[in-house]
Task: inverse folding
């Protein structure tokens, strides 16, 4: 069933979601390169929560910082906004790339998406196996059930290029060593990233990044955020939840998930129209870093709107507080 709501005014909310993302980025900016990833994350969380609570919405965080007993703010299930207005599902990562921020490395972002109530998968805070490609391909041209080499072969055939022309983005983790070797065995190139797999998935759909495909396991919440971005940009993403123990299976049951082996496509994770916003914290392929010039702070925010396919880049300049 597709979730829609006549009360979800995505046009009016597009400026609001940009401000929420911007304020979180600005709050974390002073902690870039300071080596304290927890402080950077906390600053972004606090700012994002404060901005969300100014909005005339009945918002519920369905993808957040973790379960209620693990996250004091912006936890899964937290209600935000004034409580007066449309019911909104909110998926967020106040600082995607806390380590990247602490170490002043590329591609740290603040990320948030909004959709009508009950439109987003309530993914528990577990791992998810992910596979994503950009727009312009037949549905299911690549599948999670394929080996990494088979995925490269299928995508190269669909693109009409040799396998050596394909570039795959993968998180640099010991668990991915076999996957990386499988991709490279085809002659394809691999771009390894330290953190930030929402940006990694978005690279598949953003012209000029050179990335054709993303694969690997990472957080399930980030999978839903990435699906929100691709819902706006075009492209395909598939995800399967991974469970390490009974506690994680219990989290899935609490979220209403009964089929633990289900493979979710993009429109299973995000069933209605959606808004997506990301602001650059450290510079990267998608967005430039926050910077200060002449007593002013400058941010750039990407705002995506699935209903119209609009892509807005908002540059904000304001006096330093």
Result:
């Amino acid at each position: 069933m597709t979730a829609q709501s006549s009360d979800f005014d995505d046009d009016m909310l597009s400026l609001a979601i940009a401000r929420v993302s911007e304020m979180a980025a600005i709050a974390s900016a002073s902690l870039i390169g300071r080596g304290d990833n927890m402080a950077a994350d906390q600053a972004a969380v606090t700012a994002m929560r404060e901005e969300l609570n100014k909005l005339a919405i009945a918002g519920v965080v369905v993808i957040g910082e973790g379960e209620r007993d693990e996250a004091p703010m912006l936890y899964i299930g937290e209600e935000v906004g004034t409580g007066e207005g449309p019911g909104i599902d909110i998926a967020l990562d106040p600082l995607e790339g806390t380590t990247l921020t602490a170490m002043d490395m590329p591609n740290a972002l603040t990320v948030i998406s909004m959709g009508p109530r009950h439109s987003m998968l309530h993914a528990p805070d577990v791992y998810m196996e992910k596979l994503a490609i950009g727009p312009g391909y037949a549905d299911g041209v690549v599948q999670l059930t394929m080996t990494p080499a088979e995925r490269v072969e299928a995508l190269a055939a669909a693109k009409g290029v040799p396998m050596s022309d394909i570039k795959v983005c993968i998180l640099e983790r010991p668990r991915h060593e076999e996957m990386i070797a499988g991709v490279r065995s085809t002659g394809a190139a691999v771009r390894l990233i330290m953190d930030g797999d929402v940006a990694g998935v978005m690279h598949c759909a953003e012209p000029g990044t050179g990335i054709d495909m993303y694969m690997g396991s990472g957080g399930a919440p980030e999978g839903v955020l990435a699906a929100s971005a691709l819902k706006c940009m075009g492209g395909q993403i598939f995800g399967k939840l991974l469970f390490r123990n009974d506690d994680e299976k219990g989290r899935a049951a609490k979220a209403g998930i009964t089929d633990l082996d289900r493979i979710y496509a993009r429109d299973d994770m995000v069933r209605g129209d959606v808004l997506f916003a990301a602001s650059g914290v450290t510079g990267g392929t998608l967005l430039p870093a926050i910077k200060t010039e002449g007593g002013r702070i400058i941010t750039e925010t990407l705002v995506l709107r699935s209903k119209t396919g609009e892509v807005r880049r908002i540059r904000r300049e304001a006096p330093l507080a």
User: Anything to note?
Assistant: The longest strand covers residues 87-96. The mean pLDDT is 92. The longest helix spans residues 10-29.
